[in-house]
Write a structure and sequence with these properties.
The complex is a heterodimer of chains A (about 190) and B (about 240). Chain A has three helices and twelve strands, in the order αββββββββααββββ. With about 190 residues, chain A is mainly β. In chain A, a hairpin with a 2-residue loop joins strand 9 and strand 10. Chain A starts with 12 loop residues before the first helix and ends with a strand. In chain B, the strands form three sheets. In chain B, strands 2, 5, 10, 11 and 12 form a five-stranded mixed sheet that branches. A four-stranded antiparallel sheet of chain B has the order 4-3-8-9, with no helix packed on it. Chain B has a two-stranded antiparallel sheet with strand order 6-7. With about 240 residues, chain B is mostly beta strands. Classes of the chains: A mainly beta (about 190), B mainly beta (about 240). At the A-B interface, helix 1, strand 5, strand 7, strand 8 and strand 12 of A face strand 1, helix 1, strand 3, strand 4 and strand 9 of B.
Chain lengths: ~190, ~240
């Protein structure tokens, strides 16, 4: 059987997908370092996109995914699903409250640097795009197999969120550029 | 670690990012070559939702507005199966849908089409597939509505669907259309699908066996998500 073709989420996706907030992944009881991810989605003219939607999927603070195919002997956190969704607001901004994920295994016995898996949807995007958020203050980025597979080193920077501190909160800033000179690296995966 | 990978995205089935006739795609399409990566634990896992993700009544859009009233319009029953490329059912996966009302208007502040809103219709629903991958919604047939893509542009009646499947890479957002709609051949969003057979697969079929006497017409729309490569045979 052939895959059902993808179509855009359109301009009214919030009706079906974001009426209830789903961008809070971490609670008081969740294990790990609390972080906030925030950023904007930009189009090819550098204009912000007010009708985009970002979803994230990540391991818990120990580096374990809440999924039966993750058979690592690391602890699960009953207070952490690891998934979230944020529509962009009128300014094109999105945000998540979560914890920093632990490292997870990569191909051929390698270790992947802590990262968050991202899908991007928007009116005008006929197919969602896959990307990743890495953490700017993480030395393991240097040896990450996925970052290293991006041949143009300068483009790797598009996946690195900058660490900021705002009102005592740890914030990682991650902008998504759908098109243009600094287009975010999107994956075929 | 060894994984059973999922099949690649079939780019003969999916639209390209950039499709000139769909104006909004022009500035929002990634244009650089996608970076091909191997699937890792990050991709073969993904969010799984439990039964608590769906409340009773969520799949009945004619009555889920919380007003006690019933939506106006032509009632329709939508059924289908969620399968993978090897025709295996995808059980217990969340389906979210959203749509315009019978007059062709979304209950959304951005929609200013001069058509009535229906206080008894939100236009959103959700359900989980059962063990056989089956789902069912009761709703009203959405009306066509104008948009600004090109002169006298109208979207054919359609319902949006969002599905997860078992992994991060089986995610799919799509929409389906109703058979016989004269607007279908003119729709740039549907026409972005590169093959005729692909476009055909986004059109639901009328299902008389689903139609309920004195009540509502039935339509069938099956969804096929990315399949998974078989476990390597070991002696």
């Amino acid at each position: 059987m052939k895959q059902t073709p993808s179509q855009t989420v359109g301009p009214f996706y919030s009706l079906g997908l974001t009426r209830k907030p789903t961008n809070l992944l971490a609670f008081d009881t969740t294990q790990g370092e609390r972080i906030r991810i925030e950023g904007y989605v930009f189009d090819g003219d550098g204009k912000t996109v007010p009708d985009a939607m970002v979803e994230i999927w990540q391991a818990n603070a120990y580096g374990r995914y809440n999924h039966p195919d993750d058979k690592q002997e690391k602890p699960l956190d009953p207070n952490f699903l690891g998934w979230g969704r944020s529509g962009t607001d009128k300014t094109g901004g999105f945000s998540f409250e979560t914890v920093k994920p632990g490292a997870v295994p990569g191909p051929d016995a390698s270790v992947q640097a802590p990262h968050i898996n991202v899908t991007v949807f928007a009116r005008g995007m006929l197919v969602h795009a896959y990307t990743r958020i890495y953490f700017g203050d993480e030395p393991a980025n240097e040896t990450d197999p996925v970052l290293s597979s991006i041949k143009d080193r300068s483009r790797r920077q598009t996946l690195i969120a900058a660490r900021e501190e705002k009102n005592g909160k740890l914030v990682y800033r991650f902008d998504i550029r759908l098109q243009g000179e600094n287009e975010t690296v999107f994956f075929d995966v | 670690m060894k994984f059973q990978e999922y099949n690649a995205r079939d780019w003969k089935s999916h639209p390209p990012y950039h499709f000139e006739a769909y104006a909004s795609s022009i500035k929002r399409a990634p244009l650089k070559r996608l970076v091909k990566i191997k699937q890792t634990l990050s991709e073969i896992t993904g969010p799984l939702f439990g039964p608590e993700a769906v409340q009773p009544g969520d799949a009945d859009l004619t009555r889920n507005a919380g007003t006690e009233g019933e939506a106006m319009g032509e009632r329709v029953i939508i059924v289908g199966r969620v399968l993978d490329e090897d025709e295996r059912p995808v059980p217990n996966t969340l389906i979210e849908i959203w749509q315009a009302n019978a007059a062709g208007r979304y209950q959304h502040e951005v929609d200013q089409h001069r058509a009535p809103l229906d206080p008894h219709f939100v236009g959103a629903g959700r359900c989980m597939t059962n063990e056989k991958g089956e789902y069912r919604f009761l709703t009203v047939k959405p009306g066509p509505y104008p948009w600004l893509n090109h002169p006298n542009a109208w979207r054919p009646s359609h319902i949006h669907l969002s599905l997860f499947g078992p992994s991060f890479v089986t995610r799919l957002v799509t929409q389906f259309f109703f058979p016989g709609d004269p607007l279908i051949p003119m729709d740039p969003i549907l026409n972005s699908v590169p093959t005729k057979s692909g476009r055909q697969r986004l059109i639901a079929s009328y299902a008389h066996e689903v139609t309920e006497p004195e009540w509502a017409l039935g339509y069938r729309f099956d969804v096929v998500l990315r399949g998974r490569q078989q476990t390597p045979f070991e002696k």
